[in-house]
Design brief:
The chain is of the alpha/beta class. It is 35% helix and 15% strand. The chain is built from 13 helices and 15 strands. The protein is globular. It binds pyridoxal-5'-phosphate.
């Protein structure tokens, strides 16, 4: 492994990263194609990835990092897995898109339906955002109701009606979370706190849930919580929507559905399902999916939906995932979470490092974080940017923001975890 060159930090004006970022900012807003990549909440210059392999990425200056971003959970095998690369190459040779159905779409749909208990049909999309947007439209179409209830701190992609956060003092009302989203677009959205069971009414079409919240840092549902949400939906005839874009095919073959034993009515998937290519899918029972065009009146479509490269990559990834591999990944996550907690806590810095199966979280907090307010309070301590940069300088790439989960992959080795934990101890020592 090449050594990280500490004499050339990546915000030095001489570096390729710096030069690329200057050029990028002239032609891409903030220099990026997705906001968190811009390092806005940690400061400094983003590293531009030239290539990745397994647990590692290399940037434009040749610096090597152990990568825990892993495309925010899209890459469960690590980067450039040879089997996946070969499957994509083969698919590309046969044609990249047709606008007609293909065999692999059927095979991937059959696999999803057989792995996730309760899913009988899916429709593929090109992103998780499209999947959750379509799931909400489906739920509204199927129930004939308008209201969507979502949790503060849960992210479902940049869907207008879901881009709302609970604002202080207006706890029960949807607030516009982005310029360009009209009050009318969120008029039927209600935001409620995570890990508290909301009281729904019979105008509610759907309760949208990340079954393991992973976009406010990692915040597990408390014992019995998802079951209580199921019961509350049943009480008023609302649909329960599990956004499994992160948890799907990551917590296990059956995702958070099998993990929790709670079956929702509607699902969204993405990330792992596409094997690192652009994919999403939403699904439900045959009866609910019968509302989707061309079977029913809820319109949904896409030029690249079920794309041949993406289905090839997805199938190649899923073929490698079985209970043994999930156990392996969960063990890696456990040793990372425990190691971080010990290393950072040992330096006298308040830390919580929750672990749920293969997912790891990191909060600078004294007490376990149970909802978005707690997560914001932890982030408000302001320790993350220094921790992030300290780790990056030591060759460990975490997500450049305090509200992201940590994604170890199946390519991360015990030695990777050891090195990460050693770095965390050293960096934590600089924070006190
Ligand atoms: C839970 C969840 N839902 C939906 C999305 C949106 O997916 P995409 O970024 O593929 O549009 C994300 C993305 O991070 C997510 O984490």
């Amino acid at each position: 492994m090449s050594q990280v060159d500490d004499s050339a930090p990546n915000d030095d004006a001489r570096t390729n990263n710096h030069e690329l970022f200057q050029r990028a900012q002239r032609v891409l807003p903030g220099g990026v194609n997705s906001p968190v990549r811009a390092f806005g909440s940690v400061g400094g210059t983003p590293y531009f990835v030239e290539r990745g392999e397994g647990s590692r990425v290399w940037d434009a200056d040749g610096r090597e990092y152990i990568d825990y971003v892993q495309s925010y959970g899209a890459s469960i095998l690590g980067h450039a897995d040879p089997t996946v690369v070969a499957a994509i190459q083969k698919a590309a040779e046969d044609g990249t898109t047709f606008g007609a159905p293909t065999r692999r779409e059927v095979e991937l749909a059959e696999l999803v339906c057989s792995w996730v208990p309760g899913v009988e049909m899916i429709r593929m999309t090109s992103s998780g955002t499209e999947a959750s947007m379509s799931a909400i439209r489906l739920a509204r179409g199927a129930t004939g109701r308008a209201k969507v209830v979502k949790f503060a701190g849960c992210y479902h992609g940049h869907v207008d009606s879901l881009l709302v956060a609970g604002g202080s003092g207006v706890a029960n009302q949807g607030l516009v979370g982005s310029a360009g989203v009209t009050p009318a677009a969120v008029a039927d959205t209600v935001v409620v706190p995570w890990n508290t069971v909301p009281t729904l009414d019979d105008d509610t079409a759907v309760l949208a849930v990340e079954p393991v919240a992973a976009n406010m840092g990692l915040v597990a549902p408390e014992p019995g919580y998802l079951k209580a949400l199921r019961a509350e939906c049943d009480r008023v005839g609302a649909l329960l929507f599990f956004d499994e874009v992160i948890t799907g095919f990551r917590l296990g073959r059956g995702g958070a559905t099998a993990w929790s034993g709670v079956t929702p009515d509607v699902w969204a998937f993405g990330k792992v399902l596409g094997g690192g290519l652009p994919v999403g899918a939403f699904g439900a029972s045959r009866e609910i999916m019968a509302n989707i065009a061309p079977l029913g009146p809820v319109y949904q479509g896409g030029t690249l939906s079920g794309n041949p490269l993406a289905t090839a990559a997805g199938l190649a990834v899923l073929a490698q995932l079985d209970d043994g591999r999930y156990e392996e990944l969960a063990a890696t996550a456990r040793s990372l979470g425990d190691g971080l907690a010990e290393a950072i806590g040992g330096a006298g810095v308040p830390v919580q490092a929750p672990v749920v199966g293969p997912l790891v979280g990191l909060f600078f907090a004294d007490q376990p974080v149970r909802n978005y307010d707690d997560a914001k309070e932890a982030a408000g301590r302001g320790l993350y940017p220094a921790f992030f940069h300290g780790m990056l300088e030591r060759g460990i790439a975490l997500a450049p923001g305090p509200y992201e989960a940590i994604f170890p992959s199946l390519a991360h080795t015990g030695a990777d975890i050891e090195r990460t934990v050693e770095a965390a101890a050293a960096v934590a020592g600089t924070l006190v």
